[in-house]
Amino acid sequence: MSTTPSRPGTRVGVVVTDSYPAEDLDHDTAPLVAALRARGVEAHATVWHDASVDWSTYDLLVLRSPWDYPERLPEFLAWLDHAGSVTQVLNPPALVRWNLDKRYLTQLAALGVDVVPTTYRTSLDDVRADLAGTAPGAHVVLKPAVSAGARDTGLFHADDARALALAARILDGGGVVMVQPEVPELSQGREKALYVIDGRLTHAIAKGALLAPGGGLIGGVYAEHPEQVDVTDAEAAFAQRVVAAVTEATGLGVPLYARIDTVDSAAHGLVLLEAELFEPALNLHVVPEAAGVVAAAVHARLD
Known about the structure:
Largest sheet: 5 strands, antiparallel
Radius of gyration: 19 Å
Oligomer: single chain
Order of helices and strands: EHEEHEHHEHEEHEHEEEHEEH
CATH superfamily of the largest domain: ATP-grasp fold, B domain
Strand content: 15-25%
Number of domains: 3
Number of strands: 13
Helix content: 25-40%
Distance between the termini: 16 Å
Shape: globular
CATH topology of the largest domain: D-amino Acid Aminotransferase, Chain A, domain 1
CATH class of the largest domain: Alpha Beta
């Protein structure tokens, strides 16, 4: 791998926030900053809502872990517009805006990507109808179309009153409710996150099951248990197909980074759960050699 140094004075901001819960720390920024500095880049972690930062002094901003954005969405979108107007931001603001609302899955499905069957509801009556039409005893997953870290996401029996209560809370907050059938393989912890860095599949992570039946998270907190896993040829091809579909849907080129969340389901086959193009944990503490790959991809975007 080339380690050609950057031109003197090249500055990269790795965009973060200022605090993280103990169970969901940012393990990526420190190794990425170190890997960039090893390539001669002046790299810093930069808090997105720090009003003292002059964003125009950076040659490139790499969105890494601004994980408090759902609680501050209008502020974050305004920052994204400003930052994008004064320097290069990756992944680009237009792609971030497209990716923020999970209704992008309908566009990818139209381009031939298999996804978990999903309805998107803007009224409680429509959610109620979805639940009433579910097979007796079956579970469903409800979540908002704009969310992160499994916020307001629940796994319920379809006739559980708590499912409608969650839907009402999402709708009352101005959100759109996603209603999906339970995928048993997800409840068994068999989701795989496939990482594609500048078009190259680099590694895959299984993070374990997250949702507790009846609503909420296993153990009451969002806690991933990442482990590196192998990738089948079918999964590798699927990840590339998803990235190609994203590029076709948006016209914005190949993303700097993408996390393609998948599960191989008996009911639905190999399907996309989410294409995370904004702030995915890269799990560089689990696969430390990937830090150099990400840094090289960032460095290439500076040329």
